[in-house]
Amino acid sequence: MSKVLAVIGATGNQGGSVIRRVLKDLPGKIKVRAIVRDPAKPAAAQLASLGCEVVKGDSSDPQGLEQSLKGADYLFFMTMLVPKAGVEFAQGKAIVDAAVGAGVGYLIFSSLPSSKGFSGGKYPVPHMDDKADIEKYVRSLNVKSSFVLPGFFFQNFLTTMRPKSQGDGTYQFVNCISGDVKIPMNDIEHEMGNYVTAILANPDKLEGKSSLAVGGMYSLNDAADAMTKATGKKVVYKQLPENEYLPNLPEDMRQEMILMFKFYEEFEFMGPQTQDLIEQGQTVPMSKPHTFEEFFADHPLDLE
């Protein structure tokens, strides 16, 4: 008999990745229930056309969410980034409590390490620390679980860190950290589904595990080289002082993002064991994680 996987965040990059990969790799074994805020929206209709059961549910309505999760065997969930400490944790706790109340037996969470914990309080980054606290809360309960830690998205180089023309034939993107600092990066649209499907295929083996879902450790200079190779146009990275970099960030996220990048610079995401954890994590997924080169082959970067 098929098991039921409920997905919260079904219309986003992470949830969508999970749904597509599960339908492709586990047909007949896993049925997908997409939990959405508004089943009448086109994105929800598209999920239904793929064969998903589409059900209304939201963490702001815990009782309604619990009802929408009844009968599910697994839940994949993520939480929305909120630039205020504690808010994202409350969101995640509401989801977890609803799932446990509904009798869901196995939770899969898109988590992150605690920057505050790894740095001894030096770099408190709410969207990292709250996710780590959600993971800790899940682990404290009598429910099976597994965790996927995705790192920095390659997709950021198509959006917020997209290179800009300098008017001399070169293209530049900026940040506040050294161009040589290595950061765990991934193709989130490929990797989240890649790893979650592996967990669903091997739930007992991966129960209680935290898997780093990344393609490798890349610096921003590496990113510039990959974009140069992919586009045939010269792309360079420039490090800016923090005060000059701030205007490049959303106003309500500036301090949080600066602290996040500084944490990456000093602590490599999960401290000295980061590279070992990446290598361990790369043994988990259904297929090999994407490299930068594979990502840009799938997502052509058109620099004008």
From TrEMBL:
Keyword NADP: yes
Pfam families linked to this entry: NmrA (PF05368)
SUPFAM superfamilies per UniProt: NAD(P)-binding Rossmann-fold domains (SSF51735)
One of the record's GO cellular component terms: nucleus
Xref: InterPro entries: NAD(P)-bd_dom_sf (IPR036291), NmrA-like (IPR008030), NmrA-like_oxidored (IPR051164)
Annotated CDD domains: NmrA_like_SDR_a
Keyword NADP: yes
NmrA-like domain mapped to chain residues: 2-296
Keywords for the protein's UniProt record, in alphabetical order: NADP
Family to which this protein belongs: Belongs to the NmrA-type oxidoreductase family.
Entry protein name: ARAD1B01276p
Organism: Blastobotrys adeninivorans
